[in-house]
Structures are given as structure tokens and as C-alpha cells.
Amino acid sequence: MRSILYCIYWGIPYFLRKRLSVASAPSNGAETKTLVFSVNATSKPFYIDPRTGQSNVLNKRLERKINRYGFADYAVIHLYDLDEDAYFEQLEQTAMELGDQTASDPLVLKIAHTLIVQPDVSDLDDATLEERLSDVLRSRPLGSERMDSYIVALMTEIVRRSMVLTEESEAYLADKVAATKLDELENIDEQYRIQRFSALPVEDAAQSLARLDKSMRARYRNRLKQTHKGAQILDCYYADIVLPSHEPSWELANKGLDAVSELPYCERMVSRVDDMANGLYGDALKDISAIVPNFESYMLLMKRLYGESNPEMVPIRRKDALRAYWNCVDIATFDFNALQTYLDMADESQRCKMITDIAYLGRKLDGAISEEDFFGDTFEFFQRNESSFAAEPLGAEGMSERELAIEKLCAYAKECYTGDDRYFADWLKIAANAKSADMLSVVAEVRRTLYEGDANELVQCYGELHRHWGIGATKETVVEVAELVCACSIERERHDQEYVTPIDVWLIVGGDLCSRSTFEIFDEFNDLRVLMLDDPTEAVLHSKLLQKESYVASAKQYVSSRDIGTRETKSIVKEWLAILRPKKKKGGGFGFGQRRREAEVDAPLPSAQTQDQEQEAPQQRGRDDEPATPRKNEPKQKKGIFSRVSRVFGGGR
């Protein structure tokens, strides 16, 4: 037994000797022993019979493992030619230098044995070289200079042979490099990685680069960018891995370009940033209120992408971006307060010119020009851009773009106008719809005489509208003017207790506002002051229109008709006709703005249309050249035709 123990102790390293415990026979404490000598050994779970060699411990797998360790049977194999003490001392010392301070790690001892018996790695075949490197990388000690130096030797041979490590070995290598203080290990690791990346497809190499820690990637980047393949790998890494992992933004796109700014090749990043920029700009077009900074960011990226490599692309992208913006702008989304935005985003399109023009038009509401000039500019704008408005309806109400533009301009005028005319927006709508400059001039004269208070001149100017009828004025325009004349006259009576609107003013608007008889106007507004005069003689005698045969006939028919008029109003009109029966005498004027005036009213009558003009224009009730009866099959005027007057004053029954 002693001889056997001697042989065992002699043939194993020092650390195993310390861990070996022996019992000479089975006993209560024998279960904790490593070796137990027993005559009944073969009945135990693990046994070796030294006499016969019979064993259930040794098998081929264990034998191969012992062979791989090398140190386990080295002393026995070299029994007659080995200084075993020197060998085991050297084995223990080397293991400690490799980082195992107790010289008890079998894997470290295996590495130490290899360094003793075969330090030169250049003669190893590929399989053995890879196995030894795997052992070294899997060993637990970190930061040992001796171990790291051995890794350097093995990796140098790996690089020389252009061998590829397994993913597991590469991961272990990364741990060793992260803990080392040896520059040579970092350098050989870089060489291997660069060689490894260069051998892989670009996409795979980029993925491998992504798995490295940040400090290692920084080192590899400097080497990779020096070669075309390396630049491709970096381009792929930033474009396909880094960029998609973040939320798209202008800042991220610029950082991406910064990352590849030193690379001689960055095609993937250019494409990726270009796509990102288009996506971001497309999102910005969904809310164009903040389009300018987004457009500027977009163009900055286009200049960075193509300014040097493809400079002709920059103006093309600018043109496309501006076109995309103006395709999103129409009258429905137009904002008078966005003039600076329109100027910043200006291009040569007709849409841009139209939108900018109307924005400038709104700016003129600050009072820098007269109201008449503003009406003229409005008329010119709509004439100039007639063909630029979209034909299809816009908005919830289905208005045309032109109609919507007029509505928005009038609404903005109501908001910004600071003058005294409460009907400014209504006159503005008429100016926008004017068909000719001459017609606009006539409307302006009607407005002027209406506000200056000269009834005779008002009647004369109003008559000019009918001379333009069919060649410049439309019935809609004339009706709108008539409504304004009516509304302003009623308002004046309500604010000036001494003012009486002349009969002729009511007759000229009644002819356009009433469908069956001019005198219906006095039914719509039965509280007019001219209807409540104690003595209407002067008012009647100074009426130019009531003295005309057509108006007299119209008045008689109104009085005798059962379908129109009220008893009270008909009584007043009968009184007027009675006043007209005596021989008329000349008297003072009954002017607009004063209760009595002696001057003769010599303004021309407003309804002196020729027979030819009458054929082109709608017929007016109570004119000289038409009967005072409704035309056949003419529809009755709808209730509430005095929309503007009713809206302001609540007139009408």
C-alpha cells in the first residue's frame, strides 16, 4: 500500500498532493477520503485493482481527458528521463505566473504544462493551435501578463494563418482584451478583428462590429476607415444598425452624416439619410404651420448629401420640396398672418404668386392706402388670378376656391379693418366680384354719394349700375348694392331723428329688391320715416321718379292689386298719387341728409335703359320703359331677400 501511495504522490502535481486523503481500510470516516484501500474494492462504486488492472474509473473518455491535460501522466511517461521535482516546481511557478495563485486550476496547469514542453506555437497544426487558444481564452484568470503574452503569441499565429475564431472564442477574447494592460494584446486583437471583418460579408461584419463594446469599436473604426472594405463596413454599421435604432429626427440625420464624414465611401448612409429627410419633411407637410424650420433642415441635409458629390441635385430637391409645400397650400388652408412663411417658401409657381398676392392684400388693411384703392387692388387681384383658382369645390359648404377666397378676405377685413364703415367687408365682396374696372368705379361712386348724403347724386350714380348691366354688372351685384343702400339709409334714420330718406332712394332699390312691385319696399320696412310724415306733399313733389308715368302706373297697380301690399301702405301710396294729380310746381329739393331743401333735383333718372339693353338685362319694376306688372311665369321673390338689411336691423315681415 505504501509503495502504491508513493507512486501516486510522486506522479501528481503538488496541489493534488495537498488535496489527496487516504484511508487504509473502510471505516466510518472513510467516506470523506479520496482513496480507500480495501480487499473488497470491486464492490465499491469506483475502484481500481492494482494487481489485475481491473477498473470502473478509467475509461476511454477519461483517458482522453488525461491526455489532453498533459501534465496528469507526464511524470509517469517520462519516469526515467525527467527530473520530476524540477518539473513540478516549474509547473507550479508557471501556473502562478498565469494568474492561478494556488496552482490548482486544472486548465491553467494544462496551459502551464504546454508552455513548459512546447513553447513555440509556429509548429502547431491549425486544430491544435485553435484548441490551445480556446483553453487560454476560457481560463479564469484575467489581467495576467504571462497569460496575455501567451495569447498574443497564439493570436499572432492565428492572424498569420488568417484563421477565424468561433463566436465563443471571440467573446472570451473581448473579455481578455478589456482586462489587459498589455498593449500588444490590444494590437493583435485589432489586427484580428480588421482581418476578420474584411473577410466577412459587409452586413455580417457590421453586425460583428455592433457586438463590440464602445471603446473597442472606437479603436477598430480608425483602422477600418483606412480601407475601402472597412469604410463599407462602417457605412453599413451606421446606416443599417445605428440609425434605425433611434427615433428619426433632423439632429439624428446630421449625427449620422457626422459619423461617416471622414469615410471615403458612405453610399448606404447617404441613401438612409435621404430617406429619413424625405420622411421627416413629408411629416412636416401634414402641419405646415412650422414648415420653414423643417424646410431649412431638409435643405441643409440635401447640401450635405449632394453639395460636393452631386451639386446639381440640390436645386432639384429644393424645387421638389417647394412644389410639395405649395401643393398643400390652398385657399382653404391659407392664413393671412403667414405672409413671411409664404415669402420664405416662395417659388415660381402660379399658386405661390396667388397666395402671396392675397397675403399682401390683407397686409394693406393697416390703413396705408385709401379704402377706394384697397377695393381697386382687390378687384385687380381677383381679375389677375381668375384662372389660378381651383375649379373643384372646397370647404364644407362646397364653395369654389374663388368664392372661398372672397369669404376669407371679407372675414379678415372684419377682423382687421379699423375704419368707420361697418359695411366695409360687404363693399369689399362687391369689389372682388366686379366684372370690370368701370363697374367697380360706378360702385365706388354709389358708395361715396351714399355716405356723403347727396340723394340726387346717389340716384344718378345708382342708375349707372343699370347702364353697366349685362356688360359688367350682374344682378347679384346690383342686388348687393341695393341692400347696402337700403341698410345704410335705415341706419341713418335710426341715428338721426331729423333725417328723412327721400322717396326716390327707396324706389331705386325697391326696383331691384322686390320681385313684383317697386312699392313692396314700403311693405318690407313699414316704419320708414317717409311713410310717417304728417304732410308728405313736399316729399312727393320733389320725387323725380314718382312723376314718371312708369312709376305712376306701377303705383296704381300696387294700390289696386289684391296679391301684394298692405292696407296701411297702400293708403299712403294713394295719398302720394293724390298729391301728384294737381299741376306740379317747382319747389325746393328734399335732400339726402336734411329734412327740407329748396334746390331743384336735376339728377338724371337711374332707369333710362334702351330697348336693346333691356333685352340683355333683367327687367326692373317701375321703370319708364317697362310696365308695372310682373312678367309671365316669373317666380316670386323668396322671403328674406333683404338678407343684409334683415341681418343688421331685423327688418321685413
Summarize the structure in words.
By secondary structure, the chain is mainly alpha-helical. It has helices at 2-10, 14-19, 60-69, 74-77, 84-97, 106-117, 126-138, 145-160, 167-179, 183-199, 202-211, 214-224, 228-242, 250-259, 267-284, 291-306, 313-328, 339-344, 350-363, 371-384, 401-416, 424-433, 437-452, 455-467, 475-495, 503-513, 521-524, 537-541, 549-560, 567-580, 611-616, 643-649, and strands at 22-23, 35-36. α8 packs parallel to α10 and α22 packs antiparallel against α25. The N and C termini lie far apart (136 Å). Residues 584-653 have low confidence and may be disordered.
Radius of gyration: 53 Å
Class by alpha and beta content: mainly alpha
Distance between the termini: 136 Å
The share of residues in extended strands comes to under 5%
Please state the overall shape, judged from the principal axes of the Cα atoms: rod-shaped
Poorly predicted parts: 584-653
Summarize the biggest pleated sheet. Answer: 2 strands, parallel
Output the strand order for the largest sheet. Answer: 1-2
Mean pLDDT: 82
For the secondary structure, the number of strands is 2
How does the SSE layout of this entry go?
Blueprint: H1 2-10, H2 14-19, E1 22-23, E2 35-36, H3 60-69, H4 74-77, H5 84-97, H6 106-117, H7 126-138, H8 145-160, H9 167-179, H10 183-199, H11 202-211, H12 214-224, H13 228-242, H14 250-259, H15 267-284, H16 291-306, H17 313-328, H18 339-344, H19 350-363, H20 371-384, H21 401-416, H22 424-433, H23 437-452, H24 455-467, H25 475-495, H26 503-513, H27 521-524, H28 537-541, H29 549-560, H30 567-580, H31 611-616, H32 643-649
Parallel strand pairs: 1-2
